[in-house]
Specification:
By secondary structure, this protein is of the alpha+beta class. The chain has helices spanning about 30-35, 80-85, 90, 115-120; strands spanning about 10, 15-20, 20-25, 40, 50, 55-60, 65-70, 75-80, 100-105. It has a 6-stranded antiparallel β-sheet. It is globular, with a radius of gyration of 13 Å. The glycine cleavage system is composed of four proteins: P, T, L and H. Its cofactor is (R)-lipoate.
């Protein structure tokens, strides 16, 4: 199980795990639960540059269509093809096999994101 306290979060319900200058990004279990059963995921292309707070992909569920926002500015170094092939991974393992993209970022930018306590407060303690 991922240590949720070691992650950073955005107010758009993405989580970020930093390893050196590589940020692994996914959506939180809170977001996955609110979306319902995810049936389609569109991710940015590898080697594309993404800008923080801009839409870089789409997540469709049986309930709605959600936009995936870049939590940080960087270059996409990997997209999770397993999630594209099996979108239900976003629901079943959002902090593990359901990750979405890996970005090469400025590690110092991560400090600007929310910690676990701030994210739980944002969701009204529902987490």
């Amino acid at each position: 199980m991922t240590d949720l306290n070691s992650l950073k979060y955005t107010d758009e319900h993405e989580w970020v795990a930093l390893d050196g200058d590589i940020a692994t990004v996914g959506i939180t279990d809170y977001a996955a639960d609110k979306l319902g059963d995810v049936v389609f995921v569109e991710l940015p292309a590898v080697d594309s540059t993404v800008t923080a707070a801009t839409v870089v992909g789409e997540i469709e569920s049986t309930k709605s269509v959600g936009e995936l926002y870049a939590p940080l500015t960087g270059v996409v170094v990997e997209a999770n093809d397993a999630v594209v092939d099996d979108p239900s991974l976003v629901n079943s393992d959002p902090y593990g096999e359901g990750w979405l993209v890996k970005l090469r970022v400025e590690a110092s930018d991560v400090a600007e994101l929310l910690d676990r306590d701030a994210y739980v407060a944002l969701t009204g303690g529902d987490q």
